[in-house]
Specification:
The complex is a heterodimer of chains A (about 800) and B (about 260).
Chain A (H helix, E strand, L loop, with lengths): L14 H6 L15 E7 L5 E7 L1 H4 L4 E5 L36 E2 L5 E7 L2 H10 L1 E6 L6 H4 L15 E7 L4 H9 L3 E9 L2 E2 L7 E7 L4 E6 L4 H13 L6 E4 L15 H13 L3 E4 L2 H7 L2 E2 L2 E9 L5 E13 L26 E10 L13 H19 L3 H8 L8 E2 L5 E2 L4 H11 L5 H10 L3 E10 L7 H6 L8 E7 L5 E5 L8 H13 L6 E4 L17 H28 L6 E4 L2 E4 L5 E3 H9 L14 E6 L8 E10 L6 E11 L6 H20 L30 E4 L19 H20 L14 H8 L2
Parallel strand pairs in A: 1-13, 11-12, 16-17, 22-23, 29-30
Antiparallel strand pairs in A: 1-5, 2-4, 2-6, 3-5, 7-17, 8-15, 9-14, 10-11, 10-13, 15-16, 18-19, 20-28, 21-22, 21-27, 24-25, 25-26, 28-29
Chain B lengths: L4 E3 L4 H8 L4 E4 L5 H6 L7 E4 L9 E4 L2 E5 L4 H7 L5 H8 L4 H4 L4 H7 L6 H8 L2 E4 L3 E3 H4 L14 E7 L3 E8 L6 E10 L2 E7 L7 E2 L1 H9 L3 H4 L17 H19 L1
Parallel strand pairs in B: 1-3, 2-3
Antiparallel strand pairs in B: 4-5, 5-8, 6-7, 6-8, 9-10, 10-11, 11-12
Helix pairs in contact in B: 3-4
The chains are: A alpha+beta (about 800), B alpha+beta (about 260).
The structure holds flavin-adenine dinucleotide (FAD).
Amino acid sequence: MPKDGGIGASTKRREDMRFLTGKGRYTDDINIRGQVHAHFLRSDVAHGRINGIDLSAAEAMPGVLRILTAADFAAVGGIPCGWQVTDRHGQVMQEPKHPVLADGKVRHVGDPIAMIIAETYEQARDAAEAVLVDITELTPVLDMKAALAEGAVKVHDDLTSNLCYDWGFVEENKAAVDAAFAKAAHVTTLELVNNRLVANPMEPRVAVGDFESHSDQYTLYTTSQNPHVIRLLMGAFVLGIPEHKLRVVAPDVGGGFGSKIYHYAEEAAVTFAARLVGRPVKWTSSRSEAFISDAHGRDHVTKIELALDDENNFTALRTDTYANMGAYLSTFAPSIPTWLHGTLMAGNYKTPLIYVNVKAVFTNTVPVDAYRGAGRPEATFQLERLVDKAARELGVDPVDLRRQNFITPDMFPYQTPVAVVYDTGNYQATMDKLLEISDHAGFEARRAESATRGKLRGFGIAHYIEACGIAPSNLVGQLGARAGLYESATVRVNATGSISVYTGSHSHGQGHETSFAQVVAEMIGIDANQIDIVHGDTSNTPMGMGTYGSRSLAVGGSAIVKATNKIINKAKKIAAHLLEASEADIELKDGKFAVAGTDKSVDWAGVTLAAYVPHNYPLESLEPGLEETAFYDPSNFTYPSGAYGCEVEVDPDTGKVQVLSFAAADDFGNIVNPMIVEGQVQGGLAQGIGQALLENCAYDGNGQLLSGSFMDYAMPRADDLPMFTVDHSCITPCTHNPLGVKGCGEAGAIGSPPAVVNAVIDALQRAGHAHVTHIDMPVTPARVWAAMNG
Amino acid sequence: MYDFELVKPASLAEAVKAMGDDGAQALAGGQTLVPTMKQRLASPERLVSLTGIAELQGVSAAEGRVTIGAATCHADVAAKAAAHYPGLAALAGQIGDPAVRNRGTIGGSLANNDPSACYPAAALGSGATIVTNTRDIAADDYFQGMFATALEEGEIITAVRFPVPQAAGYVKFAQPASRFALVGVFVARFADGVRVAVTGASNNGVFRWAEAEAALSGDFSADAVTGLTVPADDMIADLHGSAEYRAHLVGVMTARAVRAAG
Ligand SMILES: Cc1cc2nc3c(=O)[nH]c(=O)nc-3n(C[C@H](O)[C@H](O)[C@H](O)COP(=O)(O)OP(=O)(O)OC[C@H]3O[C@@H](n4cnc5c(N)ncnc54)[C@H](O)[C@@H]3O)c2cc1C
């Protein structure tokens, strides 16, 4: 039994008391004396030329301090992109300008045109209505394939076309892949869409800019998953503020799911404006604004093909994907359909030859970037739908076809044909576990029971792999990242033994304050309540890269382990001095330093006090104090994997799909807090099922968002979801980080969409609808009905 | 939201008077009007709140009729009409979520006449009478297409009078996001025949389905409507379903509503 508060214990989340009792301190709770309010006038057309902006009436409105347009930002930089992809011909991607406010042209509904700063929010909105913008509407570019056609209207006039890049991976394999297809015994082909999503965290984005003229010090309070990244991008690339004069604070943040990674124009605008107007400037996004200004996710259109030999072995895989970038490149957008997608196309299978082509395209839509899973859900969805389809075409059990082609435990470390090396895994074990926890054996009986009620029951499976724990800096540097992806920690031990841990990770729902404390408590052997985790403020945490890509424990936790080990090593030296023993003989156990083989010991607080009151202390060889910083740069990604099973019932009269049960058997490596892991998986499953059945960010032919509010954008609700069966007892520890952990934040959203769609297809096929081989997400009642009656 | 003045009359007479001013608009539960104002799509200068007026509140039953005060919230109808008109109470209990049901009112719903709202189906399907401060309006005359009603400028709905049928049922197929009716069908069997009202489906708002009424008046069973179809021509087509899909659902939901009526 793990000790409560130590590694392996389902310790209750300490942050929840504050969140559940309304004591959280979110960015919108920050109100600075003298603060004024900003409102952004946004484009209501998808594509247009700005002929002129008349501010005169608006500037005369009550309470208005200043109205800014692109011209006011002429001297500052544009919003930078953090990743440069090189295409199959060795060309770097086309990188359009991304001005803080629309300059000359508007490129999507929601593109900010003017920033109105007034004493109150309503005054700013009133004035926005008096701003006269003269726009000539242009034909919107919406369909990705049409956008690439010869002579297509261009989103960015100064680029040669709407193509951001044409990426081939691995380009050298292309000929061999084509040759393998030419001699395949069977080829399965699938065309599909990975639907565009809006992240919709519970807390919309907020930014408050502040400037102290006496010290030239800027502060930005913002809803960010990575305050240091924002400080670097905004300080160095947009506003030209050196780091020591810019503090970025991301306090409690109410969910991000990727959408709060990026540096957004509003952050730069409020910071810039705070100096200009000499007052703190606050902007709080409305929900409607979030729909048209938060980066969206997914939006891929793919054709994928699988070649098999006459014994049903996968011999080659080929994909052709169009990835929507939207109107501008969001911070990490170029990396999602490439390095976070193409590298995962091997899945859990030993397919020897793979070629991935991705064309990234500019359109007059909101920029697209990472959303929970980022690239990996797109890869998994294609592959796991395809393998299912292949099994049906060949008349074999989809479970058996997967098993036959799995990478086997003896093959690790496994070099895939798409660059990455899987360190560990056991896919047969997770598949076995799934079949057990989902009572697969009892499915036929349950199906018969459904049939008595006129319902069509189906079972769908998906096995996923993901690469997370992002990432080895030198590797991602070669791949085009303009940042390192290490993580940092400072462990500050106080005189009486309590500890403050400053982490570069950022918690916005993940429970770091609890699980990170568990790690340190376990290592030192003290009560977790003696340890606080501090994050989110660049003024007191070491330079860190933040939280996304299921990296916090695997990378941020490893930095904490490194720093804590430094603390322990120094503490042992102090203990050795106090105990008049040799350092080599000192053992740390349960918060006590003892001399091996004796009953001589000194407790934790005795050592920490000596460190800060160094009366009896080896001052000649050791500095006083007990505070250490460590940076950890991983040597590889981590590779969580798992088997997901979904059981659905389809109502043949309406096409409505009900998810009856969902089981997840994951291998996350070692587990620090099983309860938090289960919560992460459940949340991911809810989002994945939401993508599969409900969520659809759709534009009409004019580039207007059809699903621009919760009245039309269907978020999953509790009664859309079954109780989940979540298991993470299959453990193959990660081999290259000190905790042996892999990360669990995205898995649920990665593995679940194909499992759901496979289940729906299974139900329909079993009911005799043989012609229904695929339905695009979201699998709405209307789409199922249309497919059944098509 | 633009600035506005809020008045809280204590009686219907005061409310009628307050509504006489330019730019005045009735406010009931605010579940539609307030979000519209927040989006700056409505800009009333004066809101006349109806929910504090005692004579507009409550559920009463007499002589085979149930009368519901216009400012009665959905949750109250669900609870208090259950003994007198279970089919109506069940409909009220399916509207929105608990917060919406404790704020939104029957009068607000009927005045707004959203093409996907539930109450219009009950009012038309029951052959209810919409009572206003000036007159009685038969449901058959009241609904005049999407968001359009027989109400005059400044006219206030005070109550809705429902004749209680022998049996009634409402089944809605929820639009996945809003959970308003993608298609909702209310059937009511009276001694002199069956009424069938369909909401959510048509570009012309709530409507009566004459073929189904005729079939069910002869044989009040789900089988009686099997195979009946409504033309898809005038059906709503949007992100959530095509016109054909909605037309199909009208048949399915009608059969289910008959079963629900028992
Ligand atoms: C999240 C959500 C979910 C919902 N789900 C459903 C659903 O599933 N089914 C459904 O049917 N409805 C649904 N609704 C609508 C809701 O139930 C209310 O019926 C609707 O908002 C109108 O009622 P109200 O009392 O809020 O009216 P208000 O918003 O106050 O007013 C609406 C309009 O009616 C006018 N008005 C109000 N009362 C009177 C009166 N007595 N006389 C004359 N004019 C009047 C107002 O001036 C205004 O124009 C939902 C609403 C929300 C916000």
